Amino acid sequence: MEAILAVIIILMIAGSIYTLHARDLLSAVISYGITGFGLVICFLLLKAPDLAIAQLVVEIITLIIMIAVIRISTRKDLTEKTTIRVEGERYVNLRSVVYFVTGGVFILGFLYFFIQATSVLDPFGVHSVRMASVYIEQGVDLTGAHNLVAGVLFDFRAFDTLGEATILITAVIGVLTVLRLKGKK
Amino acid sequence: MILYILCFILFLVGLFGAITRRNVIKIVLGICIMEYSLNLLLILIGYMEDGVSPIVVKGGESNFVDPLPQAMVITVIVIGLATTAMLLAIAIRLYKKHGTFDIRQIKNLKG
Q1: Same domain, yes or no, for A85 and A110?
Q2: Cβ contact A164–B54 (<8 Å)
Q3: Is position B111 within any domain?
Q4: CB contact, 8 Å: B18 with chain A?
Q5: Could you tell me the residue range of the domain that residue A62 belongs to?
Q6: Domain termination residue (choose one: A44, A79, A114)
Q7: Given pLDDT bands bounded at 50, 70 and 90, which one contains residue A118?
């Protein structure tokens, strides 16, 4: 189980690295699909069928929106060379140095927090249900839903779902506003 | 533990892309990759060995995986779709105004 998941996540990492390095934006978006559909398979293996369905739908919609954006704009990526040639001599591009140093600082900071966070976690496969034990024991009697995820989503934590719907409506209003506005020349 | 580390590497790939790329579309893709790795990490934490999916069947086993992170991650997935659509709308707006996706040439942000 752990080995299969590790192989799928390594595939996802490879796909996302190619996404960031592709010269063509269309192939970048298509290889971004590797990450999303690998995530769907991971959810299925981790016994989360509801999530797999939701992720599949969201992934396809995202892919369609991104391809539409690329169709009405450009496909060319902007490449940046790490070295510049000035009068035959090679110089290192200072901007790329700044980028890589910033990336390194951020990565080290997140690594520290990751070590701090995972030191208190259970190892993979061992999980002690603390908060959800009530949901598991009495969920069917209290809500009438045989799918516990749906029960938690729409009954025990219904206000979270209400907030989610609010965010969705706000985003739709924002997209409509941004796309309909006439820009100043 | 190896799965948590791989998940973290996926997060770092997305973060690196969001920081170092100069194309707006690539930055959006990096942010989406970070969000995917976070979803995967939450579900990995809630998984139990030999657990079954949290759907109650009469006479079935009751060794369920944790339903709480699954319910929360569904919310996160839908909100992620909304933020991605918003980011892409802003990107296409920038392209129509400036004619490029290069964040270095998009300097005139006011008005």
Answers
A1: yes
A2: no
A3: no
A4: no
A5: 1-79
A6: A79
A7: confident
CATH of the domain at B70: 1.10.287.3510
Report the C-alpha gap between A133 and A78 in whole angstroms. 52
Q: Is the ipTM of this complex over 0.85?
A: yes
> Same domain, yes or no, for A75 and A7?
yes
Joined tokens for residue B11: 């997060």
Q: Which of B10, B14, B36 sits opposite A36 (nearest CB)?
A: B36
**What's the pLDDT at A18?**
92
The angle, 0 to 180 degrees and rounded to 10, between the axes of the packed helices B67-98 and A158-180 is: 10
The answer to whether B43 touches A117, Cβ cutoff 8 Å, is no
| HSE-up of residue B36 (Cα within 13 Å, Cβ side) | 37
End-to-end Cα spacing for chain A: 58
- Give the model confidence (pLDDT) of A64-97 as tens digits: 999 998 888 877 777 666 666 777 777 777 877 8
Measure A90 CA to nearest chain B CA, in Å.
Answer: 22
Do the Cβ atoms of B42 and B66 come closer than 8 Å?
A: no
pLDDT of residue A185: 55
Contact A184 B111 (CB under 8 A): yes
* A24-45 mean pLDDT: 91
Q: Please give the tally of structural domains in chain B.
A: 1
- pLDDT per residue over B66-94, tens digit each? 888 888 899 999 999 999 999 999 888 88
C-beta atoms of B92 and A172 within 8 A: no
Smallest CA–CA distance, residue A70 to chain B, in Å, is 9
pLDDT for res A184: 58
**Which positions in chain B touch A178 (Cβ < 8 Å)?**
86, 89-90, 93
Domain count within chain A: 3
B107: distance to nearest CA of chain A, Å?
15
